[in-house]
Structures are given as structure tokens and as C-alpha cells.
């Protein structure tokens, strides 16, 4: 079955009632016939029927054995990091999501789990950074906000050679456009807040694993730590997933048009979009992605905070907000918003100039979006 068909029918009719939309099982516990004899559900932190449907859906879409749903992307990340032990080392990309950088460098470091941050777009850097303590290689591709692409297949080989896990944060593309497990990754992490739910109305996070053994451990940690996704938010995410392919196609085609327009505007300095032929990692993106996604970043010739602020307060359709993957077009300023907690030196090294603007291109008419950008640049 092709992806689009699979997505639309991702939640099967409810076995108990025949409801074609998965019911929201808004319950914390379940009746037991006699002590510890029940229908597989005892308490909703451990398992909930609505959450189970969305967990099975994401596992199926990413091609893993099990999926786990959390109350946010960072709750998902936190749960995955709890698989590690004191003394383990994480080798991570140097422009991963700010919150992932923050939890690694200010929380897990206190428990004796160290992290190295490197440019993973060059596979040689990964080879040089690993050691016998490396347990995890953590990448995001494309990255936030400069859209750097790393070669999942090649990095998976390196991880395998040292018995480490390759973990890919697949938030920016979703399984509609990229399936890291097929390319050799061990674990996929998502902020479902973004494209999976897609409508800017829910926080959620997901983990998909390909090994039964890791699935057992994660199930234990999910239940033990407790940051599970609520029944209603599970349902909202499920509803979003039904239109995932359709939305991602439109996000991608709009973003491509906007990136090409930006190249022609004299006020623009750099344009970052993996779908542009001059993008540094265009070839890898072509190889491992089905399309280039909805995120576009650019910097201004006038590289100041003031110039960025002027643009961001003049747009009429693009909404200034700290999110992405919404059907509405959003704009943000990484240096003062999403990447505020990234040290300024690392920020500059990774191309986050003061005037850098990140667009999460929505599914509106592309002509309206381009006109909006044009007037805001004047
Ligand atoms: C938003 C985001 C996260 C964190 O997810 P939350 O749902 O906000 O907790 C992690 N990774 C990436 C790439 C993100 O964009």
C-alpha cells in the first residue's frame, strides 16, 4: 500500500464499537475482573487505547517495531537519554535543536553522561569524534535552522562499527519524506508538535525503535518516568497524521518557490534550503529524502538585529512565533528565540547570524506568501 493510502487509514475502526474515528478513551484506570485480570489496560500511564493507536501508527510509518508517545518532543528525548548509563558519551550534531543541546549539556552532563558537538555533515568528523565510550550518535537532518543535511546511511555504518546507536531526530521531514530506520538508524525521535500533528494545537513527542530489546527498555522507562501523551492529544495527533503526506507535499512545493524567489531579491544575503542546487548538501538530500520539506532560512545583507526585527514585525501572513510545521506560515528569529540557549560562539560557528530568519512555510497560496515577504523586505 502506498503511503498516502496508509496514512488516511492509519487508525482502524474501533474494535469495540465500530467507530471509524478512534475514540478518545478519557480514563485513568480500567475495571479489573479479579486482581490483575483485565483486558490489557490497568492504568493510563502504562497504557491507554487512544495512545496505543497513535503509538502503533508512528511505529508503522517509521518502519520500527514499537512506538512511544510522550507529552512533548523533549519528554521523548529525555526518555531516550535515560537508556544511557553514567560514563557513556554522546556524539551529537553541533546545530541540533536548542532544547536537545540544553538537556545534554546542562542536565545529563551532571549525571556523568558527556556530549561532544560536531559538524556531522562531514562523515570524517564523526569518525574522528567517536571513542570507545560513545554509546549514541545523535543527529538531526536537516538541521535547525541552517538546514544542513547529514548522510544517515554513512553515519549508521560508523555507529554500527562501534556498537553505538544512531538516533535521528526526524521532526523536520516526518516519515512522509524521510525514514531513517530504512537507512540504518536505530532510533527515531520526533517532536509531534510540528509536522505530525501539523496544526499548531498540540504538544507531543514520539520515539520509534527497531529492536525489541530497546523497545522493552523504553516501555519500562516511559512508564517509570511518566511523561505520556494524553488521550485527547493522542487523538489530535492521529487526526493530523491522516493528512501528513498531503501537507508535506504542499509545504515542500511552497518552500521551494519561496527559496527560489529569495535568491532573486537583492536584500537577501544567504538562502538555506536543501532543494536549491547550490545548497551544500543538496546531493545527500536528494539521495535520502523524498522531498525537501517546508523549512527555509535566510540572512539579510544588512546583518543586524534591527533589520531582522523590521522584517519580522512587517509580515502580515507569516506569524512571528516559536513553532514550525503548522499549516499556517510562521517566521522566527533563531538568535533571540529558538537558539537563545546556544552559546553565541557556537551560534556564529553554525551560521546563525544576527539577521538570520527562519520560515516555516505553510500551505497557503505561494503567491500570497511571496508577496508578503516582498513587502516586508521593503
Ligand atoms: C520542537 C523540536 C523539538 C522539541 O519538541 P517539543 O515538542 O517542543 O518538546 C525537538 N527537536 C526538534 C527538531 C524540534 O523542532
From TrEMBL:
PROSITE patterns: CYS_MET_METAB_PP (PS00868). The keyword Transferase applies. The modification N6-(pyridoxal phosphate)lysine is found at residue 194. Gene3D superfamilies: Aspartate Aminotransferase, domain 1, Type I PLP-dependent aspartate aminotransferase-like (Major domain). GO terms for biological process: cysteine biosynthetic process via cystathionine; transsulfuration. It holds the Pfam family Cys_Met_Meta_PP. InterPro entries: Cys/Met-Metab_PyrdxlP-dep_enz, Cys_met_metab_PP, PyrdxlP-dep_Trfase, PyrdxlP-dep_Trfase_major, PyrdxlP-dep_Trfase_small. Keywords: Pyridoxal phosphate, Transferase. SUPFAM superfamilies: PLP-dependent transferases. The keyword DNA repair does not apply. GO terms for molecular function: cystathionine gamma-lyase activity; cystathionine gamma-synthase activity; pyridoxal phosphate binding. GO terms for cellular component: cytoplasm. Its cofactor is pyridoxal 5'-phosphate. Belongs to the trans-sulfuration enzymes family. This is PLP-dependent transferase.
